[in-house]
Amino acid sequence: MSFIEMKNICKKYVGADKNSVTDFNLNIEEKEFIAFVGPSGCGKSTTLRMIAGFEEITSGELKIGGKVMNETAPRDRGIAMVFQNYALYPHMTVEKNISYGLKNMKVPADEIKKKVDWAVKILGLEEYRKRKPKNLSGGQRQRVALGRAIVKNQKVFLMDEPLSNLDAKLRVSMRSEISKLHRELGSTTIYVTHDQVEAMTMADRIVIMKDGIVQQVGKPMELYEHPVNKFVAGFIGSPQMNFYDVTVDGNTVQFADGSKIILPENIIAKLGGKKDGLILGIRGEDIKLDAQNIDLYKDSVQHAVVENTEVMGNENNLYFNFGGVSTVARVSKYEISQIGDRIDFVFSPARIHFFDKATEKSLF
Ligand code: ADP
Ligand code: MG
């Protein structure tokens, strides 16, 4: 038995002509950190709100701790939730904001004090206890919102895009703070985000959704290395995976612009004889410009002229036209190229993905 069990959960909003979530199936183990990720409107918040009990489950079954929760009131589900728009009470101090919910739950005063002491310590808010929200930074306010949730000491912690109102730098530091908090509290956590980097860096497992349907569930590197379809391959990873329409003849892969590469037998064999209606995918870091790889795959060396560069310092993205589409290669800072440079490159054969163009499913 898993701690949270979701079976064929569907949501159709009243008056809507189609489901917002269809047949969501997932088992979550105790203490796991799960991220729901996907583009805006794919059903992440709807799913989270059904778990929380703020949204009715149209069909399917939700169990928490072995008990069916479909009809259980939110306050009786053993959950705490942090929203994107976590309105704090402006006239209350940090500690009052944190303790307010507990007071409502009629928790004894000495226990409230203990919990608030613990929360401000764990969140680094000790010196701000007496401040009001308007005198706090965005990150501090977000920590107060987290504090309000963690003092409830619930087994399940739900977060819906809690960092999306913060600036980029703060998001990165809050990311590791939330991960640390999760390790310390050990609460089962579901974290909703549209940001694949947040999902990749924080989650034990990622659930990636599109149009209300779960596409794949797996550990971050499983999704990165073995996406089940083109959507997952394109959504996870930055810059995005390069995709090309190709045909295969023998061991030769031909691109739309006539470019050809030769692939080893073992890779071609995995295509099961399929010759056209194929999409080849390769990540930027698997396009190689170094002498060793060029020499290793000399039968398949390609040429292009760099059209744009993104210099990140530690590594650079080179943009050029290849195979009829704009392509990005991610190279180390030691392989500096300028706009207008002619480059030679190869695709690392073992890192190539193939998708069926009609179904967009991965072929291996
Ligand atoms: P996400 O959180 O992934 O951005 P949502 O769960 O908010 O997506 O929305 C999923 C779909 O359900 C969207 O098409 C959205 O327009 C629709 N939706 C969300 N809330 C409601 C609602 N209260 N009534 C009707 N449709 C809704
Ligand atoms: Mg949402």
Structure explained in plain terms:
This protein has 364 residues and is of the alpha+beta class. Helices cover 26% and strands 31% of the residues. The chain contains 10 helices and 20 strands. It has helices at residues 44-52, 94-104, 109-122, 138-150, 168-185, 196-202, 220-225, 230-235, 265-269, 291-296; strands at 4-11, 21-28, 33-37, 59-64, 67-68, 79-82, 156-160, 188-193, 205-210, 213-218, 242-249, 252-255, 260-262, 278-282, 287-288, 302-311, 315-322, 325-332, 342-347, 353-356. The strands form 4 sheets. Strands 6-7-8-3-9-10 form a 6-stranded mixed β-sheet, sandwiched between helices. Helix 2 packs across helix 3 (109-122) and helix 2 packs parallel to helix 4 (138-150). The protein starts with a strand and ends in an 8-residue tail after the last strand. Magnesium ion binds next to helix 1. Residues 13, 16, 20, 38, 40-46 line the site of adenosine-5'-diphosphate (ADP).
